[in-house]
Structure formats: structure tokens, C-alpha cells
Amino acid sequence: MVEDERGHWHPDSGALPFGIRKYVLLKFPVPEAGEFARDILYHEAAYQRVAQRLGLRVTKDLPEFVEGALLIPRFDRRFIDGVEVRLGVESLYSITGVLDRATPISHHDALIALARCATDFDTQIIEYVRRDLLNLALGNRDNHGRNMALLKDIDKA
After folding, report:
1. pTM metric for this prediction
2. Domain boundary, last residue among 48, 75, 102
3. Alpha-helical regions (H) of the chain
């Protein structure tokens, strides 16, 4: 979703004919989560605040929980010389070659894949381990390969 300069929300369909104030991902409670679906989204916003305080890389502007939905500022947009650049995002499932989310990914396999893809492996491994520890400490059971991803940055060449 995008918020225009007047504060109105629109679907992000690309090349919009107006100025954009904010890009967000919009998440609604999923039925599979049952009666706790709303709570899960609420706690996802709280998780981001804790992660930021611990120095993990999260969006500069934190998610907002508004009327049962979670608005997460987009992290895959850059503006270079006034031009919007959309960066690619690739899940941990994808970089490890896992096609089925029922297939578990071991830390060993994840780290080998990160070593192949990351431009700064030392920084990435520290971030990976710290995030995993935070998930364990907070009891987050939704820590899987689709919820972890690499951001494909702009080619500096």
C-alpha cells in the first residue's frame, strides 16, 4: 500500500500519478491462526520494537498496529536522485533451494547459503544468530525460511 501526500491510502500498483509519502506492507490476521490471529500481529509490531532496541536491522520507522491490521514500512525501496528503485527480496527457502515449506532448513544449510549470497558474511552471520536468539528468547515459533530473507542491494558497479 502507499500513502499519498494528502494521507489517503492506495494499492501500490507502481508508477502512480501522485507523490508518495509512505510505502507499507499491510498484514491482516490469517484464519489459520484462529482466535489469536489479531494478537499475533500485535506482538509482531512489539517484536520489531524489541529488535530495534537490541540493534538488529529493522525498518527505521517501526510497524503500526491499526484497527486489527499491521502496517509495516517497506524496506525494499530506495530513492536515488529522486527516482524510486525497487530492490529484490529473496527468502531463505529460495537461497537454500527448498521448495516446500514443510521441509526444515538446518542452521548449517542456512549458513552455507548465506556464505554464497551475502556480500558481508561476518555481519550477516552475527545478524542471523542474534535474530535466532531473540526468537528463542521471545518464544517466536514462526521463525522459518519464508520469514527470513536477503535484500538484494543496488549494484554498485
Report:
1. 0.79
2. 75
3. 37-53, 92-96, 107-117, 121-138
